[in-house]
Design goal:
alpha+beta, Arc Repressor Mutant, subunit A, 9 strands
């Protein structure tokens, strides 16, 4: 099946017939849009902690009827967006998405512009560095530099990974400067609890975002992963809008609370350098 035919294959209740009337054409476009939205909801079920899911689990996460979900999964599998294991009871993201992600990343100016600053922050801080962009709900990590020699020979890696915006330093560094409606949308989708320190209520999150705006950087105090501390800072485009974030990550015993004030200055400096490279000039 050609990928351009994907939405047609999942549109419920549509058939090939004579050229549709304007009214039918509009309804068809609306049906296709609804199908695409459902496709995205299915794909968003998969995370680094939920790599393989059953049909029942996907239905529970999306609230889409079982029969419709089954047809969506079949179409996604046919074009390579999903894969099914040998027992045929679990689904995983397919390699086609990896290929498309790499293509998008290769054409993404931020990744190229920021690479020297990401690598420089890795060398100066001695910690793993993450560069992420905001998709409206989550922070999407598009570049990582890791100080561990076993990670890779060069110490850097380019990949795509979604991370929660409400409980990671890179996510909160972005979220703190978003418009009110965006913050509210993130809250409305639910503040999932990952650890005992996760900011899982609106009151806690809003108070934290206010602190971040005042001091200029964010901290993740083991809110997403136990024993991990992170420091993040916002990255701005040429218009001054915060659309990305930069962070360093390390074990709490190594990246201690006493080191945060000095390291935050280093993170902010490198984030500002990326912003300037993108055309931003501070007032």
């Amino acid at each position: 099946m050609a990928e351009s035919d994907l939405t047609n294959s999942i549109s419920i209740g549509t058939t090939q017939a004579d050229p549709p009337s304007p009214g039918k054409s509009a309804r068809g476009s609306e049906d296709n849009l609804k199908s695409l939205v459902k496709l995205v909801r299915v794909l968003e079920c998969f995370t680094t902690s939920s790599r393989a899911l059953t049909l029942a689990e996907i239905c529970a996460k999306t609230a889409i009827p079982r029969s419709t979900t089954h047809r969506l999964l079949a179409s996604l599998r046919e074009v390579g967006f999903l894969e099914q294991d040998r027992e045929r009871d679990r689904y995983r993201l397919g390699l086609k998405l990896f290929e498309l992600g790499n293509t998008a990343l290769a054409n993404f100016d931020l990744s190229h512009v920021a690479r020297p600053m990401v690598e420089g922050l890795r060398r100066v801080s001695g910690h793993a560095v993450h560069l992420a962009v905001f998709d409206g709900y989550r922070a999407v990590v598009v570049h990582r530099a890791d100080p561990s020699p076993e990670f890779s020979a060069a110490g850097t890696s380019t990949f795509i990974e979604n991370t929660p915006a409400h409980c990671t330093s890179v996510g909160k560094a972005i979220l703190a400067w978003q418009p009110e409606d965006v913050v509210q949308n993130v809250i409305a989708r639910g503040l999932e609890r990952f650890t005992d320190t996760t900011l899982d209520t609106e009151e806690k999150l809003r108070a934290e975002l206010e602190i971040i705006r005042l001091r200029g950087y964010s901290i993740d105090e083991a809110e997403h992963q136990p024993g991990i501390r992170c420091i993040g800072a916002p990255v701005r485009n040429q218009n001054g809008d915060v659309f990305a974030g930069l962070s360093i990550t390390g074990p709490a015993w190594q990246l201690t609370a006493e080191k945060v004030p000095e390291l935050s200055k280093v993170v902010i400096y490198h984030a500002d350098q990326i912003s300037r490279s993108l055309g931003f000039t501070s007032a």
